[in-house]
Amino acid sequence: MTSSDICLVTGATGFVGAAVARALQAAGYQLRLTARAGSDTRNLAGLAAEVVIADLSQPETLAPAVRGCRYVFHVAADYRLWVPDPASMRTVNINGSVALLQAAQAAGVERVVYTSSVAALGLGKHGAVADEATPVDEANLIGAYKRSKYDAEQAVRALAAAGQNIVIVNPSTPVGPGDVKPTPTGQMVLDAARGKMPAYVNTGLNVVHVDDVAAGHLQALTKGKSGEGYILGGEDLMLRDLLSLIAAQTGRKPPTLALPITPLMPLAWMMERIARLTGKTPLMTPEILQMARKRMFFSSAKAMRDLGYAPRPAAAAVADALAWFGAQGMLA
User: Fold this and answer.
1) How confident is the model at residue 127 (pLDDT cuts 50, 70, 90)?
2) CB 180: neighbour CB atoms within 10 A?
3) Is this structure's pTM higher than 0.85?
4) Most buried pick, 70, 221, 230, 252, via CB within 10 A?
5) Residues 6+ apart with CB under 8 A from 57
6) Distance (Å, rounded) from C-alpha 194 to C-alpha 220?
7) Percent of the chain at pLDDT above 70?
8) For residues 145, 147, 149 and 153, what is the CA-based torsion angle, rounded to 10 degrees?
């Protein structure tokens, strides 16, 4: 390959970004990966790639990163369910994304695959399954992360409408190997596997294998239509069913206690106040409980039809996540 065949992956030290980088390497692409100064680089092990220091909060670092690249996969994002300063998250997820895509356009990048999230999409009423065309009720954009990803996607769509070649993908809730941080979802899987989740709230989510999300990114590169969005999801599950699935795979008893959300609000409020004093992420906040009232079920039919996307069952994603966590000594 020549320099014009280089694929840049932002966020390659993270969970989804590393999976995308591994998939690209397996497909024969030449890789350039971004990492922030001082970031955890364990996920870069085994990748034959040029690593460059870049930071979405520092726009001057972005032009050198994209220079000479044919394709850009913009996967990096600030993904936290609670953040003491929403402005810092917006700087990365919105301003940083726009700056990177503008740098890519100036550098002559042929196509960008932008990693959004189902958090930026509308939800079906009364737990119905949503898709890319479901209207967004901005009242459901609860929390700094959802709001930032929605606003970022609108900004990216504006760039695509102005002529830049950008395909958008919307992963649901990835689970699988390589979750070094771990993500909020990975932490939940870990807690359940350790027997630390004896109860649950009545909510639902869409669980997808992280490697299927990565495969969907490559399919979006070669088959996606500029300006279009594609949900990369897996299987819709109630939280109690996901916890039962984890319990079955770890030989534990599944939780049987369902907690009502409203009585938990005062405790969540207290936890958030303590978090603001200590700087430690709270177990729950009022916003997290508000999000739990929604069933985040999504259809990947468009990606399956247009891209050839083929997600595996949630049980396989959980099994691979548990195997990886076990190999890292994180289940003890």
Assistant:
1) confident
2) 18
3) yes
4) 230
5) 88, 91, 92, 96
6) 37
7) 99
8) 180
Strand partners, 237: 205
- The set of residues, in sequence order, having a beta carbon less than 8 Å from that of 266 and lying 6+ positions away, is none
- Which stretch of 98-102, 252-256, 271-275 has the lowest confidence by average pLDDT? 271-275
Secondary structure (H, E, C), the chain = CCHHHEEEEECCCCHHHHHHHHHHHHCCCEEEEEECCCCCCHHHCCCCEEEEECECCEHHHHHHHHCCEEEEEECCCCCCCCCCCHHHHHHHHHHHHHHHHHHHHHCCCCEEEEECCHHHCCCCHHHCCECCCCCCCHHHCCCHHHHHHHHHHHHHHHHHHCCCCEEEEEECEEECCCCCCCCHHHHHHHHHHCCCCCEEECCEEEEEEHHHHHHHHHHHHHHCCCCCEEEECCEEEEHHHHHHHHHHHHCCCCCCEEECCHHHHHHHHHHHHHHHHHCCCCCCCHHHHHHHCCECCECCHHHHHHHCCCCCCHHHHHHHHHHHHHHCCCCC
Looking up tokens 């503008």, which residue turns up? 102
Q: What is the pLDDT of residues 178-221, one digit of tens each?
A: 999 999 899 999 999 999 988 888 899 999 999 999 999 999 99
Measured CA distances, 43 to 47, 110, 144, 178 (Å): 9, 27, 27, 7
Q: Which domains does the chain have, with CATH numbers?
A: 3-174+209-233+299-311 (3.40.50.720)
Q: What is the pLDDT of residues 4-34, one digit of tens each?
A: 589 999 999 999 999 999 999 999 999 999 9
